[in-house]
Amino acid sequence: MSTDELLTSRMHQLDAKDELILNVADRVKEARTKNKKQKILRSKTQYSVRNGSYNLRDLDGTQRGGSVAGSRLKKFYSLEDQEP
């Protein structure tokens, strides 16, 4: 290949790089929204503090006292979250 062809090829690669980065970012975002662990952390009733412990809230939004270890919690699945 000549120098001109190599430069042209490299320019095409650089042009395609931005689109590739956007595609990868979209796939990562989609994968994270499907990830069950991420879904639990986005729940309205609890949020992670550190090292696997959680501060809990009641369904009406009032904060429960203190943090709770994640191993002491049981997952709650509402009927709306379950797929038919």
Key attributes of the depicted protein:
three-stranded antiparallel beta sheet; 2 helices; alpha+beta; elongated; 84 residues
Rg (CA only): 23 Å
Biggest sheet, open or closed, and with what strands and sense? 3 strands, antiparallel
The count of strands amounts to 3
End-to-end CA span: 58 Å
What is the SS-derived class? alpha+beta
Write the element-wise H/E pattern from the N-terminal end onward: HHEEE
Name the strands of the widest sheet in spatial order.
1-2-3
Low-confidence runs: none
Q: Helix share of residues? A: 40-55%
- Mean pLDDT, rounded to whole units? 78
If you had to describe this structure to a student in words, what would you say it looks like?
- This protein is of the alpha+beta class.
- The chain is built from 2 helices and 3 strands, in the order H-H-E-E-E.
- A 3-stranded antiparallel β-sheet has the order 1-2-3, with no helix packed on it.
- A hairpin with a 2-residue loop joins strand 1 and strand 2.
- The radius of gyration is 23 Å and the shape is elongated.
- The termini are far apart.
